[in-house]
Amino acid sequence: MSRILSKNTKPETIVRSTLHRMGFRFRIGVKELPGRPDIVLSKYNTIIFVHGCFWHRHKGCKRCTTPSSNPAYWFNKFQKNVQRDKLVVKELQEIGWRVIIIWECEVKGDIEDISNLIRARIQIK
To answer: For labeling, which of 24, 35, 49, 84 is most exposed (least CB within 10 Å)?
Structure first.
């Protein structure tokens, strides 16, 4: 597990690159906000989390598997991750941020698909 990246993952860099190509300006690594959001779009009062399907339990995704060894440990680990995600989203919304979650599996398409996904979620034309 020491090789698991917590920041600058490939899906994150793809989303950031796409945002930059679309003309968005953003901040990363903002420690002052709950949950340390992956991307902060201050102009749009929007926060983007790029979640890995495995760690954050993307329902219905083929990447959302559970290891067969020590299932009780993994169940508790995943449950804590999901609970923390819900709490962070709630805290951010209470202080006025709009939260967007982009799943790892959604980033696997081409740039145009990702751009359309981002536009739809940020609700711009």
So the answer is: 84
Distance, CA of 66 to CA of 4 (rounded, Å):
16
- Count of CB atoms situated within 10 Å of the CB of 106: 20
H helices of 23-109, where?
Answer: 53-56, 71-94
pLDDT in tens, the chain (125 residues): 445 556 788 999 999 999 999 999 999 989 999 999 999 999 999 999 999 999 999 999 998 888 999 999 999 999 999 999 999 999 999 999 999 999 999 998 788 888 888 888 887 65
Break the chain into its structural domains and give their ranges.
Answer: 10-122
CATH T-level assignment (fold) for domain 10-122: Endonuclease; Chain A (3.40.960)
Query: What's the pTM?
Result: 0.88
